[in-house]
Each structure stands twice: as structure tokens, then as C-alpha cells.
Amino acid sequence: MLLARALRAAAALRPPLRHPPRRLLSSSSPRALLPPPAAAPPLARSLWQLGGGGWRTALLRPRRGSAGGVSCGCGGLHTEGDKAFAQFLTDEIKEEKKIQKHKSLPKVSGGWELEVHGTEAKLVRKIAGERITVTFNINNSIPPSVDEETQDDQKPDEQEPDLTSTPNFVVEVIKDDTKQTLVLDCHYPEDEVGHEGEEESDIFTIREVSFQPTGESDWKDTNYTLNTDSLDWALYDHLMDFLADRGVDNTFADELIELSTALEHQEYIKFLEDLKSFVKCQ
Predict the structure, then answer these.
(1) Of residues 212, 140, 201, the one with CA closest to residue 170
(2) CA-to-CA distance for 154 and 147, rounded, in angstroms?
């Protein structure tokens, strides 16, 4: 008790701490006259500063009659470069249509029915309880251009070789009484395409062979896949004969190249037209 009384008495004798009252700076305060802190670099600005207000939209919108700006009423950015680009595309489309060999896609002989979905095409044939489908995609199907040395040797009056589409294609053989589909992944070797007058050889090859569940769009990687690089030639020849008996032979492969080339050119022209519309915003 005596100790507590002594502590309270000592506290009463201690002078009170003084805290200056907080106040808002008025316009007459000296601190209010100090210049604001330096602005942060543009990259350090917050997103709300960059996106707030309508002034940025007005800055991006080309002014009427300003140099380099063309107004079409859509509110988008248009420049003289866009105008020149659109004119170039117009001329390019005209030239591509002039050299277009097929206004409609050519047919493949042998009773094949064609289904096209954008850049993917499927040929279907039914024969004696079997359904054979051949699927290919024309994207990235144009082989690389010739090297510079060959171009240097080309005479000025010589025409450039026509672009040919040689896509990889997948053959599926489905039997009515089985739940498995035989899948053969095929492609065109670069050194075999376009060699006429030579001893007849296969212009396409089989790269891989596997079985996949019938009716399932997603194939299983866990199913065994046979790579033909190290395959016995006798077995490989039987596989090629197996395809030929079902209409997938050199004649079919030639016609598939013609079909794929026509489809690729058709899609290229459509792409140019879409690009022109996009640039012109129409």
C-alpha cells in the first residue's frame, strides 16, 4: 500500500506531455505554398491514372483533317499507311484471283466424299463393310521456298514455280464389326514430290501406325504406336498395299495435293479479303 501511494504521488508531480494540436493546412500556411513533390515517371503511374477520364480516348482518336489521319466514322484509328495497305491488298487479291486455277474445289476420283471445315478437310469412302477416312489440314502445308542460290540462278524471264500444298494426312480404317480403328499417319517426303518421268515409286510414306478406340475424338497416347523408321520392309510394303487396296495410292495422293493446293489458295484469298476489311474497318 505504501509503495502504491508513493508511485501515484510521483506521477502527480511529473509535468504533463504536450502534443501540438493537429490541424489542416490552409492556403495561407507556409507549407501550402511549397511546390508539390516531383511526379513519378510515366511507367510508375497507377492504372487508374492511365485509364481515368475521357481525355486519353480523345487523344487516341484521330482529329478530323489532321495529317496522317483518315476518318470513317467508326471511331477507330486510321492512317495514310492503312489506306496504302488496303490498296495494296486490293491489288493483291485481284492478282491472286487471276492465277487461281480452281474456282471450286476439285473432286477426288474413286467415290470419295469431301467435307471441309475451315482449313481442315476430310475425305470419306465406304466400301464392303469398311469406312475409310482421310483427314488433312492445309495450315503450314506449303514447303519452304527454294534456297537463295537457286533463286540467283533463275533467269529473269522465267516464272516462279507454283506453290504446292503437301499436307500430312491421317488415314483411318474402320471395320463395322470391330471397336478399334487402324490409324496410319502419312506424309509427303520432299524429295519424292514432283519427280515425273522417273521409275514409279511411292510419293507418300507411312510414318506411324496405331490402333485407337472407334468413335472417340481424343486418341490415347497410351496405345502402342509403331514407327516405320525401323520397320521391316516386308511389313511396310504390306501396309502400303493395304492402303492401295482401299484407294489410297499414288493416284489418290496426287489428287489430294491438287485438292489441298486449291483449298489452301482459296483460304489464302479469303484471308487477304478479311485482312483488307479489317484494315479498312468495313
Answers:
(1) 212
(2) 11
